[in-house]
Amino acid sequence: MGRALARLILLATMLVAWPTFAEEVAVPIGLQAELVAKVAAYDRNFSGRAGERVHVLLVTRAGDAESVRTAAHMESALRDVKEIGGLPHDEATVAYGGAKALAEAVRSRKVAIVYLTPGLGTELEAIRDALSGVSVLTVGAIAEFVPKGAVLGFDLVSGRPKLVVNLTQAKKQDVAFKAEVLKLMRVIE
Asked: Which residues contact 68 (CB under 8 A, 6 or more apart)?
């Protein structure tokens, strides 16, 4: 009876902990939209990348309800933001169709910001590799995306939002944040 109880406790522990394995958005989407709009102005290369208008590409995982919902919330939140980095903007949502197709879409549409929604965690290394050498700011909806290749992400630390930046990937994607904003971020190299 002791082993059966131990197995049951182990199973219950795994089930209780299970949600922590999911890709969950910690920072509210509206706040993420505001932070992206502000932090973009601190990227020395942003205005050159964006031109006269900022094109934001929201990338979803087809068939993933949370991914689609997050993109819809972000699109709605961005509509409430007057400017991103001091420029007018527009948004488009696309279902992820592979890293190479994403890189081509970024180049052909002159996308300045790519927003990666939950559900894309297993694709981040491929996305990172495909976008290396492409001038684009990749933003992960969750902090765990940053060490895997997104340039910028959002975390919640002691109940407060914290920006997370991958400096190695930022350099590969021609993103150069000013020192004054880097001091406010958790930096991953």
From this structure: 60, 117
Read off the pLDDT of residues 101-130 as tens digits, 9 standing for 90 and up. Answer: 999 999 999 999 999 999 999 999 999 999
| Domains of the chain with bracketed CATH | 23-188 (3.40.50.2300)
- CA 62 to chain CA mean position, Å: 17
pTM (predicted TM-score): 0.87
Q: What is the DSSP track for the chain?
A: -HHHHHHHHHHHHHHHHGGGGS----S-HHHHHHHHHHHGGGBTTHHHHHTTSEEEEEEE-TT-HHHHHHHHHHHHHHHT-S-BTTB-EEEEEEE---HHHHHHHHHHHT-SEEEEPTT-GGGHHHHHHHHTTS--EEEESSGGGTTTT-SEEEEEETTEEEEEEEHHHHHHTT--B-HHHHTTSEEE-
Tens-place pLDDT, residues 16-30:
333 334 578 889 999
Looking at the chain, the whole-number percentage of residues with pLDDT higher than 90 is: 82
Kindly tell me the burial class for residue 48, based on how many C-beta atoms sit within 10 Å of its own C-beta (0-12, 13-18, 19 or more): exposed
> Residue 127's Cα: distance from chain center in Å?
12
